[in-house]
Amino acid sequence: MTAPGWRAALREALTGDGDRALVEVIRQLDLPEDDPPDSLAAIALARAIMALGPIVGARLEASHPVHVTAAAAAAFAEAPAEGTWDDFFRAATDSYPFGPGDGCHCTLPAARHGERGGGCRSGSGTLRSIAEEVGVDLVMKVVRAALVPWLDTLA
């Protein structure tokens, strides 16, 4: 279950630019431990990873795990369920730090590791890792383009 006002908060975060906006997007996408894999935040994260896949994978071989992760993200976003989430998670683990798989994605100081909003529990901190490779501005532009129209379809 996604908290009331989550869509508006995510949409607002997506309108920003720079590192501060990216941190807020990561915070909004971070899931509480007990959220089911078909929550809106999980679907939004999958849509972001799906959109970033071609950018991250542009210089990688077609068989690289990043491409597999982007495809698994698309499958989960299309049919959110435990099985497609598990496939997405496994693929992301194989392409760490790309996607919400096993591995530390925390964006908070070590003393606050695992706290809600830090990107660790959900793997949303992967957006920070991707930004370190391709730049914060590009990540925000791509994620905004992927998520704002989708958020607008949710009544």
Summarize the structure in words.
The model has no long low-confidence stretch (mean pLDDT 91). The chain is mainly α. Helix 3 (40-56) packs antiparallel against helix 4. Helix content is 59%, strand content 0%. The protein has one domain (6-153). The protein is globular and about 40 Å long.
Structure at a glance:
This protein is mainly α and 155 residues long.
Radius of gyration: 14 Å
State the domain count.
1
Terminal residue distance: 16 Å
Low-confidence spans: none
H/E element order: HHHHHHH
The number of distinct β-strands equals 0
Shape label = globular
State the helical fraction. 55-70%
Q: Give the DSSP E fraction (strand runs of 2 or more residues).
A: under 5%
Major sheet: size, sense and barrel closure? none
Question: Total number of helical segments?
Answer: 7
Give the integer mean of the pLDDT values: 91
What class would the helix/strand composition place it in? mainly alpha
Secondary structure elements and pairings:
Layout: H1 6-14, H2 18-29, H3 40-56, H4 65-78, H5 82-94, H6 126-134, H7 136-153
Helix pairs in contact: 1-2, 2-7, 3-4, 3-6, 3-7, 4-5, 6-7
Descriptors for this entry?
155 residues, mainly alpha, 7 helices
